[in-house]
Please model this.
Amino acid sequence: MSFDSLGLLAELRRAVAEQGYTEPTPVQTQAIPAILAGRDIMAGAQTGTGKTAGFTLPMLQRLHASPVPARGRTIRALVLTPTRELAAQVAESVRTYGKHLPLRSAVVFGGVKINPQIDALRRGVDVLVATPGRLLDHVGQRTLDLSKVEILVLDEADRMLDMGFIHDIRKILALLPKARQNLLFSATFPDEIKRLADSLLDSPALIEVARRNAPAERVAQVIHPVDRERKRELLSHLIGSQNWRQVLVFTRTKHGANRLAEQLARDGIGAAAIHGNKSQGARTRALSDFKQGEVRVLVATDIAARGIDIDQLPHVVNFELPHVPEDYVHRIGRTGRAGNDGAALSLVCVDEHGLLRDIERLLKREIPRIPVAGFEPDPSIRAEPILNGRGRPGPGGQGHGRRSPPSQGTARPGRTGHATPRPQAKGSQHAAGGRAAGGSGRGTGPRRPG
Model:
């Protein structure tokens, strides 16, 4: 199937072709006609399946088909994302695919100055991409009007709920007109997402291109058992001995990400950390350096990694297993994208056996255990509680079961779209959704938009 068969405008097909894409992905094949028909959507799509283009292309076409109000541009499409990085990525897709249409777009998120965003909004926009906290900041300052929104997109809805944004989302929904098209995209479908969908969607088209909570099929997964104190040594050994040039490494905490990046640098391995406490400028530079190969390792927390989109990223390493099993699926979904193969390795110590069991229960399969010669774990070492970053034991460690989903009062994120307030970054290149830093290599064969 080609894009010509999906009913897209010539201007949109031209933009897709200019990116080198030739065939739609399965989620695009299903979502684009349904959205063009005006239906609500509930789509289960993993990262790397092309879901962004799956809603961006038909959204732009529907907006183009209806004339701009004579009294000026108003926000007619609103895309909500959980993180700054994902917001910038989506905004870039809107600009790329809409370049031949007379539509304007902007992106607003925290961590940067608000005044340039206000200026962009005053000039008028058709499509606004936003994180919930900064959007409500603008609502509070009366710098935007959501009363004319025709299309609402919740992208990575599961992550937004996991970050505690449910209250903000409900506040935003109350500001929107009741008559609108709703598009909900989520990589996983916990019960909270189903409840939100029931209250939000009207007879939605159900799109699921993979089994619920399943990892990408092209990702080879392996567990390397190792003692907790030797994880960094093993990671350096794997990177050096196998000559890995681009590795995304996950830790549970911001402090752990900083510490590991510093340790790898002392081992002679170029590394950078990316997490919520970094300024937006620092995060953009770290991601750009990683994409361009100036650093070999990017150490990230779960929240900060959303929006990292590199088609040919070969390796993802779980330096520490996540407390929430679904986060494992999100993590390894950073590799094996756009039809490429990927490898996901997890360095698992005795403290994390309970977390591993929860992950395997979710996946409905056992992940192969392959000890690395010289790094076999010492069976005499006993499990210790896993600290949650505040010096207290976290759930799921020492063989305990999975944690309950976060309650509405748990770890309320700051109004910047992240767990804690951020210092403002210099400059205003993100005020209207400045281009996501860096680029990515593309594989051979049919090109599919992400």
Remarks:
- The domain at 219-363 is CATH 3.40.50.300 (Rossmann fold).
- The chain has two domains: 3-208, 219-363.
